[in-house]
């Protein structure tokens, strides 16, 4: 039997599977093409609120019965909201696939959204927001997104604000589900010891999403100026993000950007980790990241350090970013990061949830499957010249964004921002 199969139902719902008969598990995900970037400002937080609410009860199951439905079989049921998608997912032994489909369909299609449960869950999410805001290593990324995207939808926090969440009415929640949980914008993905034809039959029987597609989210545009935001706090450290425009998900040079990110801050052997933590002892945590969205992306560097050593740490970041724009990586450096990325991809193949997520994201973002061999071959084709070109394309000093959280001296960045404005 072919490992990969795809079926599109009459209502536009897509079912994609990757069969791995060597395992006994199945990872199953309901991927809905809606996230925080789809929200109007007064709706910010509603996508995540709905993700919580579907677990609070349906016409057939109480919250307790939902929680026990797969755990009692040794499986797991979970969900997450991102800036572009919502996913309800399960992992079970293959013999329990029908039960997993039934439960996922029940919560995603028939959530009760009762006023009492909504009132209670709002309070839970408010506590989640407070907890996230009191964790500086998390909160700095929300502050950075707000700074980088400068009022655009991708800059909205996924959790929303306490004020917004408390103001959500049941009517608004139900209307948002009606507008966004649409069959043509949903992918059901599975990986593991899965029978594709049986899964399609189960999906036809259990899932009842409204037909149609989600309205496209508002487009975002690349920033046009330097942006700096300082958020004082009583933290003992200064948490810091510096970022530049990255590449969209479908950009043909995305893997070159990933290799560049890996070289700079992808693990303990990366340049920034070695020079900032190992050589100077300036930070415990330091890394680079590249977030790719539909029509845009962002590259950034994060660290947390003592306020007295922020200038020294920032100078190292500036110096290393300048290096990758001015000189090619050596053959040894290029081989190292290629082997690192290949190894990470290879290790991910052992996880059925990772395979399932890869299937779904490529289907939603690209409309097609991307094989592991295609990805590996693309990694092999990246050259030092391409990485140099991508570094100069992304690391545009006139589009720099900086966010700090904690006792930062704003004068540290004055020279850099004046020179780049």
Structural class: alpha+beta
Note the overall shape: globular
The description of the largest β-sheet is: 6 strands, mixed
Question: Can you count the beta strands?
Answer: 11
Question: At the third CATH level, what is the topology name of the largest domain?
Answer: Cytochrome Bc1 Complex, Chain A, domain 1
Beta-strand proportion:
15-25%
CATH superfamily label of the largest domain: Metalloenzyme, LuxS/M16 peptidase-like
Please give the count of helices.
Answer: 16
Radius of gyration from the CA trace? 23 Å
Q: What's the helical proportion of residues?
A: 40-55%
Specify the CATH class of the largest domain.
Alpha Beta
Give the termini separation.
Answer: 58 Å
With strands numbered from the N-terminus, the spatial order across the biggest sheet is 1-2-6-3-5-4
Mean pLDDT, nearest integer? 95
Low-confidence stretches: none
Summary, kept brief:
With 421 residues, this protein is α+β, with helices and mostly antiparallel strands. It has 16 helices and 11 strands.
Identify the notable features of this structure and list them briefly.
alpha+beta; 5-stranded mixed sheet; 421 residues; 11 strands; Cytochrome Bc1 Complex, Chain A, domain 1; single chain; 6-stranded mixed sheet; 18% strand; 16 helices
Provide structural commentary.
By secondary structure, this protein is an alpha+beta fold. The chain folds into two domains: 203 residues, Cytochrome Bc1 Complex, Chain A, domain 1, CATH 3.30.830; 194 residues, Cytochrome Bc1 Complex, Chain A, domain 1 (2-Layer Sandwich). The protein is built from 16 helices and eleven strands. The strands form two sheets. Strands 1-2-6-3-5-4 form a six-stranded mixed sheet, sandwiched between helices. It has a five-stranded mixed sheet with strand order 7-11-8-10-9, sandwiched between helices. A hairpin with a 4-residue loop joins strand 9 and strand 10. Helix 11 crosses helix 15. It starts with a strand and ends with a helix. The mean pLDDT is 95.
